[in-house]
Amino acid sequence: MKAAVFGINHNRSLVELREKLAVRDSQLPNFLKGLTMQFKEAVILSTCNRTEIYVSSFLEDDDAKIKERLAKFFLNGQHNNQELVNRFYFYSGIEAARHLLRVSSSLDSMVVGETQILGQVKDAYQTALDLKVTGKCLNRLFQTSFGVAKRIRTETDIARGNHSVSSVACLLASERLGSLQDKQVMIIGAGKIGVVTLQHLAKKGIQAIFVGNRTFSKAEEMTKRFGGTALHLKDCFVKMAECDLIICQTSSPHYVLKYENIPEERKRQQVFIDLAIPRDIEQRIAELPGIFLYNIDSLQGIVDKTLESREKDVHKAEAIIEEELQKNGWR
């Protein structure tokens, strides 16, 4: 058996396309079961910056036909749109293995060195494992990727400085607002990214942090652990009038902040950062005076600056991946 991957990421598409192709957690069982009607094994990884389908096939299977079947399955009625299909990458055999090892080790992340991607890969694999849609080929590949990611974090300084999407978002906000020390910050969403964002802000000593969530108990639990004030989601729409920075990152399939939710009377300058896929904030909000709206793709400029200091570690990590590929005999 050999592994193959068909996917799209932040290097191949803008957020407007990625949000249409994202696979929600509730959709995973049907997607995975559908895939295993055509392939022996399957794992789907869907994050804010990528959606990827991993499958296993027989060694003699033609790559072009595998890609065609995956495109037809995933893009459904749009699989004949060659311009869209060309935005996707397809790798098989050792190239698919190399790709997953780079993804798990955060070398393929927008923020190289961020730690969240490994947890997301593990969650994607666990979901497939629980649904009994993995087997010898993908089990070996994913478990190898976890070990390689751990080795890279142990033997290099790739994660030095605890880089994350949240920390880069705060750097972006600082460019517009100046120091965040005396600012009021609101986080909407109590998921994993929200927790990382709150931890980052708390470590920076920012006192005025508000956390809103549709399920109030989750916001309350988060603020009890890491600080801040919990809010019901409806109260966020009022409180945000006083906030300088609003960061959204929910798993909602629809807008959480709409044009009509923004208070008329508010601070003269506010930064809104949308880290969600699909997006949480309606684009029209950027038309309001004094509001600067950024999405996850806006982080690239800041990311490029932070990467320069870690080039040596990136090269070390790439060498470890090549060593592990040879050691594990990937074909």
In short:
With 331 residues, the protein is α/β, with parallel strands linked by helices. The protein has 13 helices and 10 strands.
Keywords, separated by commas or semicolons:
331 residues; Beta Polymerase, domain 2; 10 strands; 2 domains; six-stranded parallel sheet; 13 helices; Rossmann fold; globular; alpha/beta; four-stranded antiparallel sheet; 44% helix
Which blocks of ≥5 consecutive residues have pLDDT under 50? none
Named CATH topology of the largest domain = Beta Polymerase, domain 2
Topology order in helix (H) and strand (E) letters: EHHEEHHEHHHHEHEHEHEEEHH
Q: Give the overall pLDDT as a whole number.
A: 93
What top-tier CATH class of the largest domain fits best? Alpha Beta
CATH architecture of the largest domain: 2-Layer Sandwich
Oligomerization state: single chain
> Which range does the strand content fall in?
15-25%
Provide the domain count: 2
Rg over CA atoms, rounded to whole Å, is: 21 Å
Q: Give the proportion of residues in helices.
A: 40-55%
Please give the order of strands in the largest beta sheet: 7-6-5-8-9-10
Question: What's the story with the biggest beta sheet?
Answer: 6 strands, parallel
CATH superfamily of the largest domain: Glutamyl-tRNA reductase, N-terminal domain
Distance from N terminus to C terminus (CA atoms, Å) equals 10 Å
| H/I helix tally | 13
Shape: globular
Q: Care to count the β-strands?
A: 10
Computed structural class: alpha/beta
